[in-house]
Amino acid sequence: MRFWRLVGLAGVAGVAATGVVVARAERKRRAYTPEEIRERLHAKVAEQR
To answer: What is the distance between the alpha carbons of residues 16 and 12, in angstroms, rounded to a whole number?
Structure first.
């Protein structure tokens, strides 16, 4: 019984940690202005050619 409780707590901690990572990535993504995004996309396309 104790083992399964630890497994459950580890699962909850994993889900919480994943949520934190997603939230940080979203905040970082939203920090770009539309002009910055456009410049980055143009640079990526230029690299591929």
So the answer is: 6
| Coil, strand or helix at 42 | helix
- CA–chain centroid gap for 26, Å, is 6
Amino acid at 41: L
C-alpha–C-alpha distance, residues 2 and 10, integer Å = 12
User: Number of H helices and number of E strands within the chain?
Assistant: 2, 0
Predicted pLDDT of residue 18: 94
Q: What is the pLDDT of residue 23?
A: 92
Half-sphere exposure of 25 (CA within 13 A, CB side): 6
Q: Which residue has the tokens 């905040």?
A: 27
